[in-house]
Specification:
The chain has 430 residues and is an alpha/beta fold. It is 36% helix and 25% strand. The radius of gyration is 24 Å and the shape is elongated. The termini are far apart. The chain binds NADP nicotinamide-adenine-dinucleotide phosphate and L-homoserine.
């Protein structure tokens, strides 16, 4: 059998320990598949003395992960530290500069520095593999970059954050508020103590920006992603969605429209018959649409020790086999700078919920404003009777330009009879 692939692992948290589990548990299987053993030579973490519950007897501990990334007795470095700056970035830059291939699960790092890192990898003739960075155990990077290489891709839609999908699923199941379900998810360890990257849509936007580059051959453009999180979704919206034949999901979506690239992350009404609507709990899923293949739908675990490490090991196997492909599907110099399509130009139907005082003339004032902004109503629901008290008024509006609806709702929010900021959730069709 050929020489072992010598691995340095930076980070012994959820992901790093999952990698150790698989290397320890599947050593023989992996050696067969790679034609050479995968050998863990050195590990690094902050705390040398922490009990990790895995067998690390075959490797040494390097206190400084950047020193590990320089070592001549290591062929490939796994970065499982996290964060777009600091140690993670230094480790990846150093490893590449020293001629080592890198495997990372770090979507934040790639969203902010992916192009510079891919350029360095290309210059140094090494791989920069990142399957685990998007949708955990789902092989979506390989699917877009290799499996669907024959296709011009038209659209990507994904549930890319398990925390948000769990919260929305539980809100529907229990009827509880966002705040209640988030607190429960934190207590169960499903959501971070600081959940903002997840619930404010930033994690999904990092992942989407990577998929967009792979799908459309464009340089990663994280700053052009329109991002809204799920904090404003209320139990009442989930109930109305159901009544109208939809389920609310936080989607990351990218499309090429008339030569411009649209990237948006926000809660969506997804028709109940669509596979994305059926994805529950912490699961992730991606729907990709290519011109020859049609639709491809992948679903699986988007996070966690086993699934994320599974994706990292797949990247290692590629390196051990000597497979190297352009980081973002085409050489960095050929990635285009696609013109961004701003959310203001998005066109689609929308759900709108208002809280208004139940008194004569309120509807007339609102519909006049909508008409002035060229927004046409498809459905309107107001139930019960509560004179001069606030009631929910729900509308579905026909396809409209996003900026038109935004201007109309800003004007409606200023009416005396409107007692709360309007809530709007875009309706998707696939
Ligand atoms: P984690 O559990 O917090 O583990 C981070 C590890 O990095 C810890 O072992 C920590 O050491 C080590 N570390 C932190 N700063 C360091 C430094 N300056 N020098 C050396 N080691 C340092 O994080 P994780 O959940 O495994 O996530 C790692 C990466 O994978 C992140 O980029 C994350 O976004 C990505 N990811 C995670 C998941 C998931 O399910 N968790 C899924 C997909 C992608 P100590 O243990 O000594 O503190
Ligand atoms: N925080 C992410 C999620 C997992 O909730 O899906 C890591 O990508």
């Amino acid at each position: 059998m050929a020489e072992p692939l010598r691995i340095g692992l930076c980070g012994l948290g959820t992901v790093g320990l999952g990698v150790v589990d698989i290397l320890n548990g599947h050593g023989r299987l992996l050696a067969e598949r790679c034609g050479r053993p995968l050998s863990l030579v050195s590990v690094s973490a902050r705390d040398r003395n922490k009990s990790r519950g895995v067998n690390l007897s075959g490797c040494d501990f390097e206190a400084d992960p950047v020193a590990l990334a320089r070592r001549p007795d290591i062929d490939v470095v796994i970065e499982a530290i996290g964060g777009s700056e600091g140690a993670a970035r230094q480790v990846v830059e150093t490893a590449i500069a020293h001629g080592k291939s890198v495997v990372t699960a770090n979507k934040a790092l790639l969203a902010h520095h992916g192009i510079a890192l891919a350029t360095a990898a290309e210059t140094n003739g090494v791989s920069l593999n990142f399957e685990a960075s998007v949708a955990g155990g789902i092989p979506i990077v390989k699917t877009l970059r290799e499996g669907l290489a024959a296709n011009a891709l038209e659209r990507i839609s994904g549930i890319l954050n398990g925390t948000c999908n769990y919260i929305l699923t539980e809100m529907e199941r229990t009827g509880a508020s966002f705040e209640t379900v988030l607190a429960e998810a934190q207590a169960l360890g499903y959501a971070e103590a600081d959940p903002s990257f997840d619930v404010d849509g930033i994690d999904t936007a990092h992942k989407l920006s990577i998929l967009t580059s792979l799908a459309f051959g464009t340089a990663i453009d994280f700053s052009s992603v329109h991002v809204e999180g799920i904090r404003n979704v209320q139990a009442i919206d989930i109930a109305y969605a159901r009544e109208l034949g939809f389920r609310i999901k936080l989607l990351g979506q990218a499309r090429r429209i008339d030569g411009r690239i649209e990237q948006r992350v926000h809660p969506c009404f997804v028709p109940l018959g669509q596979p994305l609507a059926a994805v529950a709990g912490v699961f992730n899923a991606v729907l990709a649409q290519g011109d020859f293949v049609g639709r491809v739908f992948l679903e699986g675990r988007g996070a966690g020790r086993g699934p994320t490490a599974s994706a990292i090991i797949a990247d290692l196997v590629d390196i051990a086999r000597g497979l190297r492909v352009p980081t973002f599907a085409v050489p960095v110099g050929r990635l285009t700078r696609g013109q961004a399509l701003p959310i203001a130009d998005h066109i689609g139907p929308c759900y709108v919920r208002l809280r208004v005082l139940d008194r004569p003339g309120v509807l007339a004032a609102m519909t006049a404003i909508l008409a002035r902004h060229d927004v046409s109503i498809e459905t309107m629901i107001q139930r019960g009777r509560a004179p001069d008290e606030a009631v929910a008024l729900v509308m579905v509006v026909h396809e409209t330009k996003d900026s038109n609806l935004a201007s109309a709702l800003a004007e409606i929010a200023r009416l005396d009879s409107v007692v709360e900021q309007p809530c709007r959730i875009r309706i998707e069709s696939f």
